[in-house]
Amino acid sequence: MWTTGSDFAELKSRICEDMENVQAWCEKLKMRLSLQITEVTIFSPRPVAATYPVFQVGDVALSYNKVPKLLGITLYEKLTFRRHIEKMENKRM
């Protein structure tokens, strides 16, 4: 899921609303989300706050991961591939 916003409050509101909609859709289709393993990352070229807002769906708080891995690519919250490249270089040695 991807959204944009000008501040954390706006991002939090949009993501939580979208997650609630996805959860309702899943329940309608008799599917279940694995919220315990669902992660949130805030991508920004500017510094991200030292404390992150808590994103919650129902009564489950989603964990924050500033270096997520997606389809084998390690991302970084500043949208660079630096961490992924470092990881690949270390594997090569």
Describe, in short, the structure shown.
With 93 residues, this protein is an alpha+beta fold. It contains two helices and five strands.
Folded structure, characterized:
It is a single chain. The chain is of the alpha+beta class. It has a domain at 8-66. The longest helix has 21 residues, at 8-28. 4% of the residues are buried. The chain has two helices and five strands, in the order H-E-E-E-E-E-H. It has helices spanning 8-28, 82-92; strands at residues 39-40, 55-57, 60-64, 69-70, 73-74.
Sheet with the most strands, sense and barrel status:
3 strands, mixed
Mean pLDDT reading: 81
Number of helices: 2
Quaternary structure: single chain
Any key phrases for this structure?
alpha+beta, 3-stranded mixed β-sheet, about 90 residues
Question: Any chance you could write out the topology, listing elements then pairs?
Answer:
Elements: H1 8-28, E1 39-40, E2 55-57, E3 60-64, E4 69-70, E5 73-74, H2 82-92
Parallel strand pairs: 1-3
Antiparallel strand pairs: 2-3, 4-5
